[in-house]
Amino acid sequence: MKFFSAFSFIFLMFFFFHCTHSTDVKEWKKIKKGEILVEKSAFHSALNYFFLIDPTNFSDDSKAYLYRSISHTYSKIGLIDSANFYLEKAAKIAPRGSYFYYVTKAEMALSNHQTSSALETLAQVDKKFQNKEEVACLLSQIHSGNYGEGFFDLSKAEKYALRAFRLNQNNSNKEQLGTVYFEAEKYKLATKIFKEMYYQESNNHFYKFYYGQSLFFEGKEKKGFQLMKSAAENNDSCKLMFDEIFSN
Hints:
Elements: H1 25-39, H2 43-52, H3 60-76, H4 80-93, H5 99-111, H6 115-128, H7 133-143, H8 154-167, H9 171-183, H10 187-200, H11 205-218, H12 221-234, H13 236-246
Helix pairs in contact: 1-2, 1-3, 2-3, 3-4, 4-5, 5-6, 6-7, 7-8, 8-9, 9-10, 10-11, 11-12, 12-13
């Protein structure tokens, strides 16, 4: 059975950019504040904050960074057209040959269902700019089958998910790693991750569901079922996942 996240979309996660322009440090910090809101799932508040930022005096890199942050936030709430609009703005303004240019180019390819092209670009950027969280995230999602079953490779998905997690242990990377463990039937490892996430945010119905699901397939059916059922009773998306598992 394929594990899937209610948060999944073309740009599953927002990214952290290491600013190389000392004159942009103040502006970069402003954008980071918005990303903290995204991390807390306060997507509409994050968008309102981003649109209050005046990018007039930003470098092209920082402008592209702002537009990508807006794009990723729109993707979190499922507004595909708006997400693509701001991703295209970022792609047009990112300095050619820069790290940002390559990553945005790969994301644009994925948004246009050109997964092979995205993989070629990511291979280039992974070689030129090593150990980047964004690259590891995208490669893990591609090899998890999110962009076509022809690219599905769980060993590679786990490799890159672990790399992203080691670079940044945020919730997005934890969820991706837990997802890969679940798909690889490493249920104890998935349970450990989702248990931690659920205990940190006990009001998050998705984390409750994923924790319960991992427990259920680990062999602890009773507790797992109760957690999934509770999440399903309080969230429509969780109910859909619950029905998919138990409809047969």
